[in-house]
Amino acid sequence: MGTDESGRKRTPSDRSSREWCEEALTRLDAGRPESALDAARHAADLDPGSEWAHRLISLAHERLGRDAEALPAAERAVELARGSWQARLRLAAVLRRTPGRWAEAVEQAGLARKFAPEQPGPEVMLGDLALLRGEHARAERSYLAALAADPDDRQARVNLGLALLRWEPPRRHHDPAWPIDPRESGRARRALEIWARQVRLLLAVATPAIAACALLLGRGTEARLAGWGVLLLLVPLTLRQARRVGLWTYVAAMLRRDPWLGVSVVSAVLSVIAFAAWLVLGAVRVPSLLDPVWAGLAGIVVLGRPALAGVRALAESWRGRPLRALAVTAPARESERAARRNVGVTLWIVLGRTWSVLMTLAAGALAVEPRAAVAAVAVPFPMVRGYLRARHRGDPWLAGATWLVVAAAVACAAGGLLAGTPGGAWAWRAGLGALGAVALVFAVRGLRAWWRGGPGPSRSSLLMCDLPVGAGPSVALEPEVRQTFSYARSIVLSYGDALGPRVAGAVASVTSSGELRLIAETAAWEAIEADPRVAVFATDPLQRRFWVEVRGIARADSDVLRVTPKEVLVGEFPGRHQRR
Q1: Which residue intervals make up region (Disordered) (predicted)?
Q2: How far apart are CA 489 and CA 482, in angstroms?
Q3: CB 483: neighbour CB atoms within 10 A?
């Protein structure tokens, strides 16, 4: 508890509002949001005008998963300090989780950047808002601006890596700017997924069963009738899932935002068409070269889930710039869990890209000119360099797959050099076997992660960094500063406009929340609307040598300007001063 100046032990009731805020922040950092909420409420009770206390209340509610309760406290903080960039940032963080208020979140983050362009936090928030909507180029620009302000910002580094990878959020089908709850679009997506899965599974089971009845038992007519019965069974199944979708006005946009969901639905529709065509072709007896049994089987296999999964894994390995993402994210891996996880997944992506290049090169060399496989030895170089630079040692599966790829490249190159000899044939077998082993390791690693519920080697395991924002302390006006503005005979307002800096006289008062209220000339209002950063200067007539300068953000409120302090300078003439 500590002691006061007289040596008496201090009790919790002796603490000031700012001390309770500091205690709340300590408890938040220790992972005790419920206890932090109590401390922040004590601070707000002692000083209802403390915007810092209300920001901490909002943050504690957010940590507890109570977004609806976090919003009023964040809005109250903005009301108390309209020029506080931290209050604006806190409100933006809450609004982005509130359905229908995404545009307001972007506006609040934009104001925070306008109020504090030297801070990385507003740029990080704008980058997060763009990233969650899939606007990767805009997110990349914001994160780079944040890193220009603070090269050590962990959140900017991790999320810039995601933007470079062209990462999609888990709910990629949902646009956060839509005025609907994500749970509603999630139910619609789930219904579409279930319908597509049920259709593909039912047809995949029915096709070999019908083929077996027709070919092995000689019951072609009965088998085709059973096939038409399967199609009729799809009608009630489709109607049931269609009722569960509900949000049909958003379905087209959902399919555009989530291309793989669209591919899944379209493949199910094509499977139904292929199955019906197969039954019709079987009835009219197409020549054996185009036997409908084998044509139908091939069509359903091509459109089936395993083929789609393979195509998706291959396509996702070629999205974005993983090597640059590694270079950006790796420096933050020691201090941020999301960075360590994302580095591992990114290395798997690089490995998948290298594997696909080697497979293509090997197939082309075997089909055209075996000696061309010599180039395979250079293919793994970027992958190995990225792996060694990242110094990622937490995944032995990744290490094994990496060196298998290197071995495959060396073996294929040897096969090309020794083309036409027994040694070359064995080298080719070893290289192709190593490439097959890499695919097996990837599949087993993914199944292991699925079974244990942990992060796997695919893009779905990438994690966005979302650190708490808006918790920093506000700038307090000490009693001597308040006294200066209360007794000063002249107060000077400094602001900037298109022609340069301007100085104007003003009349000021200090509110209980620590804001300055100014009455200034009309010309200042228009300039401050464009650039709200101002400085207010005053001298204390009771202490002739004492002066105060408050730098802050001015916002118009009725017939006065409200200035929220960002920095306070005090000193004595002729110039000695200190920052507060």
Answers
A1: 1-21
A2: 14
A3: 17
**Diameter over CA atoms, the chain:** 112
Gyration radius of the chain's alpha carbons: 33
| Inter-residue contact 249 to 200 (CB < 8 Å) | no
Q: What is the DSSP letter of 476?
A: P
Helix, strand or coil for residue 574?
coil
**Residue appearing with tokens 């690693």:** 445
Residue carrying the six token digits 């997110």: 139
Residue 259 vs residues 193, 255, 299, 320: alpha-carbon distances, Å: 13, 6, 21, 16
Q: What is the pLDDT of residues 364-416, one digit of tens each?
A: 988 888 888 888 888 888 888 888 888 777 789 999 999 999 999 999 999 88
Q: How far apart are the first and last CA of the chain?
A: 25
The three-state secondary structure class of 11 is coil
Q: Which residue, 467, 512, 464, is CA-closest to 48?
A: 512
Residues linked to residue 127 through DSSP beta bridges, in sequence order: none
User: Residue 429 region, left (φ>0) first, then alpha (ψ -120 to 50), else beta?
Assistant: alpha
pLDDT confidence tier of residue 286, bands split at 50, 70 and 90: very low
Helix (H) or strand (E) holding 32: none
Half-sphere exposure of 439 (CA within 13 A, CB side): 12
Are the beta carbons of 149 and 118 closer than 8 angstroms?
A: yes
Beta-strand pair 546-557/500-510:
unpaired
Q: Which of 554, 557, 479 is nearest to 524 (CA)?
A: 554
CA-CA-CA-CA dihedral for 409, 410, 414, 416, to nearest 10: 20
Which amino acid, one-letter code, is at 167?
A: W
Q: Which residue has the tokens 């609004």?
A: 95
> Do the beta carbons of residue 67 and residue 96 sit within 8 Å?
no
Instruction: Name the residue with tokens 């199609």.
Output: 231
Residue-range domain boundaries for the chain: 17-165, 182-318, 322-461, 479-572
- 2.30.29.30, 1.20.1290.10, 3.40.50.1000, 2.30.110.10: CATH of 479-572: 2.30.110.10
Q: Which pTM value belongs to this model?
A: 0.84
